[in-house]
Every structure is written in C-alpha cells, then in structure tokens.
Amino acid sequence: MDHTKAEPAEGLGGRVRTLRIRRGLKQQDLASADVSTSYISLIESGKRVPSTPVLASLAEKLDTSPDYLLTGIDDHRAEENRLKLAFAEMALRNGDNGEALQSFGELLAGRAALDGPMVRRALIGQATALEKTGRLEAAIAVFDALHRDPAIAVGSDEWCGIAVALCRCYRNAGDIALSIDIGERAVARLDGLGLETTMDHIQLGVTLMGSYHMRGDLTRAQLLGERLLPAAETQGSHGARGAVYWNAGLVAASQGRLNEAIALTERALAMMAEGDNTRHAAMLRMNYGSLLLQLDPPRPERALELLESAQEALAEVGNASELSRCELNLANAEKQLGHWDAAAAHAERALGLLGSDAMVLSARARAYLAEICLLRDAPEAAVQHLHSAARQLRQLPPSQDSAHAWRHIGDLWRRFKSHEEALKAYDMALTAAGLARTRAPEAALSDRR
C-alpha cells in the first residue's frame, strides 16, 4: 500500500478523498447499500465520523488499513515504530540507559506518527532512562505530566507504575514531604476503589515505606510494613515479598534492632535471588554488607565480599546514586580493615559519580575523606572536607540520612577537640531528626513583659 503522497495532517476525511482520487474512484464507488454517496461526501468534508464497520469497508475499497485512515500512519511505518519502541525498552532493561534515552527521544520527536498508548510507553521509558542517568528533575517533569494524564486509568498497572516512579524520584531528589504526599494519595485512591490489598498496593506501599524511613518516621513505616507483609506472603511474587522484607529490614536497622534487620535482609535476599532483578539483588547485598559493618563487633571482611559483588552488578544496571552509595559502604569497610588508601579512593569515586549536586551522599563522602585524613594525620585537609560537607548539608531538607551525616561530622569535630563545631553539628543532627530546639527561658520572660 503506497501512501507516500498522502498528507497525515489532512484528517480522516481528507485521507479518504486523497486515496479515492489517487485510485481513480468516484464517491459512488465507495457507497454501498448501507452507506449513501451523500454520506461519503460528509465523511470527506469532515462532517461525519464513520463507524467501525463503515471504516473497515472504506479501507478495503481504498486498498489501505483502517489504522491508516484514522491516523495517517501507514502499516510499514507503524511497524517500524513498534520495533523501535521495543528495542528502546530492551536497551533500558539491559542497563543501556544512554542508548535507551536517545531512542525514546527520537521516537518522541516524531510523536505525530505514534498512537496514544505508544506515546505513553515512550514517555514512561524516557522518564525512566532520565531517572537512571541521574537527571531527576527532568524525570520528575515527565512522570508528573503522565500522572496527571486523564487517559491513564486510576488503578491500572500503568498508573501505579507512574505513581511509584514519581514517589521514588521525589524522594531521591530530597523532597521527601512531596514524595510521601504523592504516595499516600495514590494508596488512598487505590483504597477508594474498594479492592483487597493488591500487588499495586504492595508496590506503592514499599515505596512509601522507603520515604517514611528516610524522613525518620519509623513508626509509620513499621505499621505499613506490618500491613503489607501478610498480603505479600499470600499473593505477592518473590520480588514483591522480597521488597517488603527489604524495607522492614531497613526500619528495624534504624530502630537499632540489628540482628532482626539482618534476618529480614537475608530473607529478602533469598527471595530476590529467585527472580531476575539484578539491580534489586545487588542493592540488597549492599544493604546486607552495610548492616554487617554496624554490628558490634563488625564483620568488615564478609561485608567487603558482599559490597564488591554489589558494586560489580550496579556498575552495569544501577544509577549514579546507587553506585555512589555502594562506594561509600566500600569506603567504610576498607577503613575498618585499615586500608586507608583504598577507602579514600572509594570515597573519591563516590564524589565523582555524584557530580556537583548538593546531596546527602556527597556530604557523607566528604565526611569519610575527613576521617581518613585524620587517620593519616592530615588535619588541615580534614577540616576542609568537614566544612564542605556542612555547607552541602545546609542546602538540603531535614531527613534521617542528613541527621546521620551531621552526627558523623559532629563526632569528627569532637575528635579534633573542636567542641563548638561539634555542638553545632549535633544541634543540626537533632533538628534534621525532627527535634526542635527548646525555647530559651529569657525569651519566655521577655514575652511576659
């Protein structure tokens, strides 16, 4: 079917007229017992939209397809676009994020040749590739527009995946309050559908648990985990069940229940191992290694094995934030083993991966470098790293992660015997953890006067 001279912009009626003339047909040639010549004229002028049976009859007589009459896209081009989209999605699954981003961009540049579902798939793929390459603001803009798209039905797999991604992106960008708001609203909308706890609930709930945990709202995270675990056990896939145990382990660790956290993480890792999600399995190994470093006494040798295995996988399928977090855990393991050069190299690599953005991970990397400088008896370099870490943290909203980073900085200043700087850091740690300063007595007296 040759449509090279037909113009997609002319509309359905224009395409019918163009093809009819090109085929040397008259309007009455398209008419039938059910469709009059005058009705054909109305269709060609754009005053009537044919029903599905009439559209199929017209397509047959014009030697074309109903899809071409509707969209202006011929079968060959449509098939070519479907293949391009499939290859872009495959590149994304294989960790070729840059290649996938380029392919999705090329498809969207010619979005007039795509139908609605293909446009949405390409936009979801583009946003996911942007997220994986660390361009969170750009990813959020695309996911947010999709989240507001009325063509995407609430409760559908597509809608749920977009809500999860948007919640995750805001959390990783540091806007935890908005991440939680989006997650809670999405869960409430699912609840409003009157369904039992579904896989969609589990996926959203797990993401929301992570945001609660990052904010330091451990009670709420624990309660949500207790709601999700029975549902995950009865109907969840290995991956979904593993994700719930994974987040329950994070909460237990933050509450100081390290042995329970390790048991939960081991169970999550066993479940993830039965699936094919390389990235999640790698992140779980990283979490497991991190927990072993927190034990008393710590187990840095075993932790190093787990972390090196996680690093190898994340180098292929992880994003910059995940890989830098792994590098920082490796820095901690090497530091505990007394390998200061290796520890410093890992911390430097983490900084290089994160770029110039002010992030908690960047501050943590500088705190590790400061500690290594202290161990090497290089106090001036240590002080520079501590001031740089503090400057970055002051630009960020409060969170559990920033509270831990401030605590680390305070401990290092105390080792310097710089008590004033240590107190400032501890004060910031308490504020980041959600504890407001107490009002000075003289301020209360002043109010009474």
UniProtKB/TrEMBL annotation:
Any GO molecular function: DNA-binding transcription factor activity
Assigned keywords, A-Z: DNA-binding
Cleaved signal peptide residues: none
Ranges for domain HTH cro/C1-type: 16-69
A Gene Ontology term for the protein's cellular component: cytosol
Tree of life domain: Bacteria
PANTHER family associated with the record: HTH-TYPE TRANSCRIPTIONAL REGULATOR (PTHR46797), METHYLPHOSPHONATE SYNTHASE (PTHR46797:SF1)
Protein name: Tetratricopeptide (TPR) repeat protein
Lineage, opening ranks: Bacteria, Bacillati, Actinomycetota, Actinomycetes, Kitasatosporales
